[in-house]
Amino acid sequence: MRKIKSLSFKLWFTIMSAVILSVAFAYSLSQYYYKNLYVEKVKSDLIYEASLLAADYAGGKITEEYKQNIEWFNSKNESETFVVNNPRELSACLPFDIDYNTLISEEERQMLLEGKPIEKEGYEERFEKNIVAAIIPLTDGDRLEGIIYTYIPVNSITDLIHEFAVKWIAAAILFMLIVMLLTTKWLKKLIHPIRDMKAAAHQVSNGDYSIQVRVTSDDEVGQLGHAFNKMAQSIHLEEERKREFLENVSHELRTPLSYIKGYTQAILDGVIKDKEEERKYLQLISRETLRMQHLVGDLMELTKMDRKQVMLQESPIAFAQFIEDFVGKYQQVIQDKQLQLQIELDPDPIIMGEERKLEQILQNVLDNAIHYTNAGGVISIILKQNKETCELSIADTGRGIPKQHLPYITNRFYRVNKARSRSDGGSGLGLAIVKKLVELQKGELKIESEEAVGTKVYVTFPMIQSEWL
């Protein structure tokens, strides 16, 4: 039953049904045309032969010599041919007594008198058989001296048609066997990649995402194979990212939890006697708790944005002033790290946005720029307006991002530095959050970077037009 439901059987059954129907139709058509064309050819040949015999008639009464010539022709030919020299008394030409007047009707006799040949097809009572016949008049002036009557029994035609049918059916059976063999081989070759994909899909469902199917064609099946391989690669990459993320989160949680557990246990066990040292331990516990809170907060933020549960409280914002106020919070950090800050802000752009979300965007981008730029480096912040949009660029002269990582840098869970060091790199959520927040406020995010040269982040927002105000 499963075999009957398979795609290969359905294709095989469809093709064979089409072939059988085509063969049956071709057979019926050939039978029809063969029979009709053959009968027409027989009639034409009978008239031609009889006309040639009639051409030897020189007029006057029909002689015995002429009759003998006709009889000789009859003995050499497949058709039955004879002469009737008295249309009203035809029995005189045969060895048995038959009233031959019934061979031709009054209408046919008139046609013969006019010199027209007659074709006949059907059952002839006097011969007690189905025949195909032709009658040619032998006229002398306006007198009908006799006729040449020639016919072939339909049985002989039927025998030929039967012989043709037997040969045709034998050839058709051989043809269908060859078609069945070739179709079966072709379908096996066609279905084989699909079966490979089915087996590969089972492996993917069992967790083996590294599987790839072999693609041997450029048709729809080949395109399906390429699509499957891309899908498997995407799933594999996503699983790697998730695994990486879980490892990162586990590490980020394990480290502060270890601190919290150790410091708390030390306090509970009474190891710490000095109040000042106890306060220091409690501050460390508070700091690590805050780190975990931020990590969980980031995850919840992304989840809400994925589910479109974030509602913006938008208002018009003078973007240049907003940026200047925000960057002021980083002046001390930038000085402590001995970085140069260059700011060039166009005061005109006004955008519609939510301040807290914009702060998150700037904080993530600026934190990265400061973190990955060494002492003596430069961070530049430029805001300029275009026709209907404004563009904020934050550039640094830090270590840069390798080219192969750029297409994935805004993917969540992705980190350029795979080492899970607390001092180098976060959980891989920062730029993913930035991208989501920018898109949420109808903006665009673009990142350019060159290794050992620096990184430039472009954030573009639509401006409020003057007629909106």
Automatic annotation (TrEMBL):
It catalyses: ATP + protein L-histidine = ADP + protein N-phospho-L-histidine. GO terms for cellular component: plasma membrane. The chain crosses the membrane at residues 168-187. It comes from Peribacillus asahii. Keywords: ATP-binding, Cell membrane, Kinase, Membrane, Nucleotide-binding, Phosphoprotein, Transferase, Transmembrane, Transmembrane helix, Two-component regulatory system. It is a multi-pass membrane protein. It comes from the Bacteria. It is an enzyme of class 2 (transferase). It is found in: Cell membrane. Residues 188-240 form the HAMP domain. GO terms for molecular function: ATP binding; phosphorelay sensor kinase activity. Its EC number is 2.7.13.3. This is histidine kinase. Its main location: membrane. Signal peptide: none annotated. Residues 248-465 form the Histidine kinase domain.
